[in-house]
């Protein structure tokens, strides 16, 4: 199918078909594994012909990347959107950080089936790895601008935020995916929140 002509749908029904292919294709890839899923299966799950799939996408890899964009939009940015209009100060930092962690955990729970396959593919697929690298940088920049707007304007604010994202990501993965029985996640959350507050308030 290398010679197929890829088109961008304009009509509502065509747009809906493409979105269905992305949704069901991505879900199927996450459920069965990328290498265990073929285009015919994706077409069947989406309720379209294989030819329709190839009219919108070069191959299943394109479907994976489009699905990743929606996955990221559903997981990452909604977790911080609600604080964009808040005034952030040292006094309410603890409360806001806890709300952000709670939202991240909630959003991660929406996509548990996708996590394992996507994580594996970041080590084997350069496009997937680059996507998450760029997404992490984008989120860092969004948070940096938000903090600067609220007078957290250190010369190393980018580095501080990047460390914070790693801490939040780790606690979310612990709570949602790892679930170690011998770890008290309330205590771990307290430790993470305290560390983030220190990172954002400690002067050089």
Short recap of the structure:
With 204 residues, the protein is an all-alpha fold.
Description:
The protein has 204 residues and is mainly α. It has 2 domains: 12-66, Arc Repressor Mutant, subunit A; 76-201, Tetracycline Repressor, domain 2, CATH 1.10.357. Helix content is 72%, strand content 0%. It contains 10 helices and no strands. It has helices at residues 12-32, 39-46, 50-56, 60-75, 78-81, 93-109, 112-121, 126-149, 157-178, 185-201. Helix 1 (12-32) crosses helix 4 (60-75). It starts with 11 loop residues before the first helix and ends with a helix. The mean pLDDT is 89.
Q: How many discrete domains?
A: 2
Helix content: over 70%
Q: Overall 3D geometry?
A: elongated
CATH topology category name of the largest domain: Tetracycline Repressor, domain 2
- Please identify the structural class as seen in this structure: mainly alpha
Would you identify the CATH H-level superfamily of the largest domain?
Tetracycline Repressor, domain 2
Q: Which stretches of 5+ consecutive residues score pLDDT under 50?
A: none
- What is the class of the largest domain in the CATH system? Mainly Alpha
